[in-house]
Amino acid sequence: MIDRRAMSRKFFIALSKIKWAQPLISRLPFTRRAARRFVAGEQLFEAVEAVKSLNGSGIKASLDFLGEDTRSAKEAQTATNQLIEVLDKIQTATLKANLSVKLSQIGLTLDEEFCRQNLAKILTQAAIYNIFVRIDMEDSSLTEKTISSFEWALQNGHMNTGIVIQAYLYRSQEDIQRLGLVHAKIRLCKGAYNEPPEVAFAKKADVNANYDRLAADLLEIARNDGFPPPTPDGKTPPIPAFATHDPARIESVIQLMRLMQVPEEAIEFQLLYGIRRDLQLSLVNQGYPVRVYTPFGTQWYAYFMRRLAERPANVKFFLSNSVKR
Ligand code: FDA
Fold first, then answer.
1. In this structure, what DSSP letter does residue 265 have?
2. pLDDT tens for residues 113-150?
3. Residue 141: which domain range?
């Protein structure tokens, strides 16, 4: 039987990578309208307003200045400077927020050393403001390079950074153990890219089971470190962050926390801007720390395609926008 859901996922993720399709699709007015649900705006001031509104509801944010797979050193340098401007804004607007960065935006696919120097510039400026910077995880061709650049940052004294682990990868359990040794702050997500069966679980049930297993490992690591709390300014998260909208995964984390007597503030739930606002608020009302990943910028195409890939209902929503005037 054809698995339509899996095919649709593969289609939209493949589309996210096609460079020539990007300007064509992004320019369509209905695409922009539909993307707006998942993106706080194209300009920094719009993202600042969105974060202020989240903060007003007791929710912290991680700002993502959209962009990835940068093709020239000049673009990567410009992106680095723009990311530093975002840090300046978090500081001057006293936002309860930190920053998320994709290393391919600042040159990982061009030259690893160059990328690390850009990362160091961002982390140095962030440290002046005590802002934490999360390194997002991209597709599996970049997993090892991303982890080793993160380790390089820690070895070079940039302690204000953390990383992401994807539950769909077979290697993730070992990566968590490896990163636990360096007391890494880890965001656990399911994984958003097309990966071959040689490296990743193909079935949703297997990804979910691995998510629960890795969540337990992360809580154990955080316990060994004495559950370091997040900072009250909302800028630095605790060791484990559970990034998912899946109620069953969230419930499983909550059950584990009860079993292991983990204090609520020792973890963070993280969700994406524009998705399950009801769940975001319900978790806050239950007393759990919540952070919303808040993307903004003009380079929203690939991010939007991944959101369409995740949920067939989003495609219907997208198509319904195409017929509205
Ligand atoms: P799942 O896909 O099973 O969805 C569970 C439920 O959540 C759905 O039934 C639906 O109700 C809702 N939902 C999920 N996606 C939706 C969507 N697009 N639109 C509307 N509703 C939706 N990935 C990665 O590879 N690297 C990274 O660095 C990150 N970073 C990251 C940060 C944060 C804060 C989050 C929440 C997610 C990521 N991701 C990520 C994305 C992640 O890997 C994954 O693709 C999505 O979170 C969707 O998976 P869920 O865990 O939500 O479960």
1. G
2. 999 999 999 999 999 999 999 999 999 999 999 999 99
3. 42-299
